[in-house]
Amino acid sequence: NTKTKKAREKVGNKESFKMTSVKVAVRCRPYNQREKDLGSKLCIRMEGNSTMLVDEDGGERTFNFDYSYWSHDGFDEDPETGYLTPKPGSNYVDQTKVFQDMGVGVLNNAWEGYNTCLFAYGQTGSGKSYSMVGYGNNKGIVPVACEELFKRVDSSDNKNLKFQVTVSMLEIYNEQVQDLIVKPAARPKGGMKVREHPKLGVFVDGLTKHPVQSYQEIQGKVDEGTSNRTIGATLMNATSSRAHTIITITFKQIAHDEKTGLPLNQKVSDINLVDLAGSERAGSTGATGSRLAEGSNINKSLSTLGRVITALAEKGSGSSKKGGVIPYRDSKLTRILQTALGGNSKTAMIAAVSPSMANYDETLSTLRYADQVKSIKNDAIVNETPQEKLIRELKEENERLKKAVGGGGGIAEGVSPEEKARIEAEYEEEIRANKRMMEEMEKSWEQKLKEKKTAEKEDVSFKTTCHIVNLNQDPFLSGKIHHKFQKGKNLVVGRNNPQGAPNVLIGGLGVTKDHCFLFQNDDGDCFLKPGTDSNARTLVNGQKLEGEHMLENNDRVLFGNHNYFLFVDPEEIGGETPDWEFAMKEVHKDQIAAFQGSEEEIKKKMMEEAEARMKAEAEANEKQIEEERKKIEEMKAKMEADLKAREEQMRKEFETSGGDERGKKKMEEIMAQIKKQQEEQDKMMAEKEEKLKEQKQGMAQMLKEQMVKKEMEVKAQRDLEERLTETIVKIN
Length: 732
Known about the structure:
The chain is α+β, with helices and mostly antiparallel strands and about 725 residues long. The protein is built from 18 helices and 32 strands. Strands 2, 6, 9, 12, 13, 16, 17, 18, 19 and 21 form a 10-stranded mixed beta sheet that branches. Strands 23-22-32-31-28-29 form a 6-stranded antiparallel beta sheet, covered by helices on one side. It has a 5-stranded mixed beta sheet with strand order 25-24-26-27-30, with no helix packed on it. The longest helix is centred in the C-terminal third of the chain and has 68 residues, at about 590-655.
């Protein structure tokens, strides 16, 4: 249209607009171990930028994207670095290629002053985190982009241009927004509110932004957020990390006056890195109760995201209905992503898919999502605004709101007292939000850095001190909570109570006020002592704590029903470290043994029945083959007797005729015919015997395949402990 064709280059306070489509890539991961064990069938293939989804019957659906990344096979692992590289002639796409296509654009857009958003979508376990974060030396887009950003900052030689980078991290869990870099105890009940400002757009009120000066500091904040996320999950008796996570890196470029040194204007870019929780069918996960409700809320927000994407795609193609409303407000996720999806942002998406036929439906859903996303168009704007003007506008807006609250206008006459009180409360809340933003803007960068250093007195003494560390069902959340022993002091372990918080705060079923005590004597020996409440449930290495117990390195401790911890003695570290699954199985070994016993009986009976059935089939087939063999032998004997009788008869006739030349010649002709018939009969019998032999071999092969099939059925029972684990977690 006319507006978008008129690209306005920024001059002073002017803005430059750019209409851009969302860039979409699809990436297919390798089989995981479970899929390998079950002999999974491939349902994906890629050619160029096209992704083909293949069903059980060989039918194909073709989707075209900006990039189709084949990372399923065709790679070698460097023995020294562990980096995965393509084999010669393969179409494997490594992390470097993904960054060049997707990450460089994110980095360049941020440097130019555009808001950027990169979000990963796909079912749980499809490989989203590998593309975004990576593993080991196979670094993903996020760490490489951040490292490159700080390299550019360090190499800048413009003395009048200052750079500021801040990071924030939030999660949306069960439709509640929480700041992950804030301790759970300090968070508002019910989560933070999502607001919209005419100048600042959509934002989360009260979300903390932390100054950083390197990627390592960004990673430190992300680790801190993950740790707080784990503590929150522990206190509310939740083991799942299934939540939408958004990391926002704000990159500011502030131009200063060369003579006075005062800030003139600022160019701001918000880099949003979004990891969407996986969306699965409830039936495929076996989720019930609170897990099902959690999944329902995740699927609700993703469903709303789907409707928003559909509406934006229709708008981008010009097929939307006149006056149609984009349903951003139907979920917290879409509200926060409003700018990234259909507003002032350059956006890219990586859709991660599983290669297994077992996940066909989820993969199809992901590809349909991605196919709609590529039709979305955004109006990206360079965010360059005089800082003083923005602060002044916020002050003016606050004055207007104060007058409205104080009766100076703004609230229509005739409004009921209740409605007036509600409106005034909303105005007061907006005033407080504006005030917080002004205070944040007016702080100097040096002041922010000083506050950060004061707040970040990192306690790493646990690396040299005996402590307990948490174990979690999600490996990403294990090892995030540490509680140190203190010589000569009893540390109280228990739930929160009005008389005062314990030294080690835990929650959930089976946890009491003074649950138990941690103690270290002057010799450095560490002990676990039971509390006074007999209902307190504490287990060490699967055994109930009856009295004082001296802890040894790698001892597993269970507080209540689900709080698993590992005792660590830094002086004794060595050997394999037990994980959550090991500790859980140890605690529930009797249940597992009983459950396995019943399963073993069923499997044994199944195998016995299968063997008996196959034995009966084999015996019947052997009998049939033996009967066929006897018939062939009888036919062969009869044919040989007939031929011998004919030969004898011809010899007698020849002798009777006197044996003249004519009779001799006739005799030779008849004997040749008999010989030929005998050869043909021998050939026919040999073919029948060969056929019987093939039939016997085929039967043996069929029996072998049936045995293999049964073995596969038994192999499929390996998920027994996983199902039992889920059952135990639900009970807890």
